[in-house]
Predict the 3D structure of the following.
Amino acid sequence: MNSELYKSLNKRVGTDFYVKLKKWERKDMTYILGAKCSDGVVLVSDTKITLDNGADFTYSNKLFKPLKTVVMGASGYSGLYKSFQDRMTVAVSQYERENNSGITEEVLTILGEDVIRGMHDTYKEDRYLITTNLNVLIGTRIKLDSQLMLFSGQGIPEP
């Protein structure tokens, strides 16, 4: 934001808002956007990844496509998201191999819940890291239906 805009905001909303806005502007954040379209879904993300509790950063793709009809993006610790990606890839592959069928939205939801539950089992007393530092947005287009689903770190899917 430029200083003229700040001055204009300061006159309209007061100094307190100006100070809060300045503090907010400096914070790191992740941007993941999902939208349902007439012929599927679109996910968009930034590429900045914060490392070492904010001490360093790098750039990388935050979107992941485990299936032709599924795309995922996440906010939170990149290591947790990488673990989710790896586990989800294995779960999807195993399901398809064992059932000789494609994934449905219902199955994808169950697999996502199971993956996050498995992460909680792995992290045990440190599972609070998952509940507070992982959110996964999943976009699907299976058959003719498209859907967006948000998995919280608790493993609860929200359409």
